[in-house]
Every structure is written in structure tokens, then in C-alpha cells.
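During the reporting period the student researcher (J.K.) took over the structure-prediction task from the postdoctoral fellow and processed the backlog of single-chain submissions. One of the processed entries is reproduced below for the supervisory committee.
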Amino acid sequence: MTPSSPPSKPEETRDGFRFRGGRLALDLPATLAGRVSGQHRDALAAPGDLDRWLVAAGLSTEGLTDGASGASVEDLLAARALREALYALALARAEGRPPPEAPREALNAFAAQPAAAPWLDASGRARLTGDARALLTSVARDAVLLLGGPEGERIRQCQGPTCAILFLDTSRKGDRRWCSMSACGNRAKVAAFRGREKS
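J.K. obtained the following C-alpha cells:
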């Protein structure tokens, strides 16, 4: 398992968290809702929320890995800082701008920390082992490869009027507009239909 591989559950929403980005480096920024409206709702409000996100993301099986302690307040603050650095960098990439310096330096510093180790368990499944910080470092390292690699050209921001979710456009034509067809895409279709009915 790597941070870029999807968890076994394909649902877009798991344990209250949105996973529409196609990469965990784009899903972590989605834990802060209300970016467009300015009425922020932080899904990472407490250390236990970070543990839950790590499980929902498929990085941890029970919020704890091989006896490692759960997330601390310091881990939570680090996760929020990483989240904001990832959002700033991915948004810049989506808009064709150079990476902003402070978020770039923050990401590089995070990615330089010790990361979670891959582990083959007794059932033959691959997973990551480490504490919350090490698991987040694995996400940061994958983010460096995403943002600095060719796939970075396919980072998009959802065109939903109230949505700020960033996603990796894996469509053949590279013209995906919505973070999710069942959410923002459907709302746009309904709005367009109603607009045609009125006219």
C-alpha cells in the first residue's frame, strides 16, 4: 500500500471525510470545508479526528499501527499545516502558477521526516506501519512526486460554485469539471435543467 493507492473501500465519503481527489495529497486538503464561503468547518478538530482520517484514508487499520500511540495535539497541528501547504501548492498547480515559496518549503521539510515503512503482514497484505506523523510524511512524499511530476498537469479544482475540492483528472480527454459526478456534477445538471425549464 502506498499513499497514492486507493483504500479498499471505493466510497467517496468514508467516516464523514471526503475522498474525491484521487490522491491522498488532494484528499487531505478536503478536510477543511467552506473555503469558498469563508465559513470553515474543520473535520480535523481533535487528534482523534486525525486518527479517524488515517483509517478512512487506508493508511492505518485502527488509528494505531503496531503499538504506535494515537495522534497527539502536535500531530494534529502538523497535519493542518501540511493540509494548507498541499492546498496552496495544488491550487497553484491547477491554475498554472509557480509553487508559492512558503508552502513549498513546508512540504519539503515535512517530506524529509521519517516516513512510515511498508510492511507485509501475516495475511500477505501490504500496509504501512508508523505513528501518525510518519503516515503523514508518506502522504507528503507522495505529494512531492505528484506536484513535481507529469500528473501534476492534471490537477483540477472542482467547478462547483461552492466547492474548493482539488482532484486528479484521470479522464481520457482531460476535461473533467467536477470533483464528483454524484455530488457537484449532479447539482450542476439539476441547475442547468431548471434553468432551461424557466426559459
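The committee noted the following: Residues 5-9, 63-67 have pLDDT under 50 and may be disordered.
J.K. will present the remaining backlog at the next meeting.
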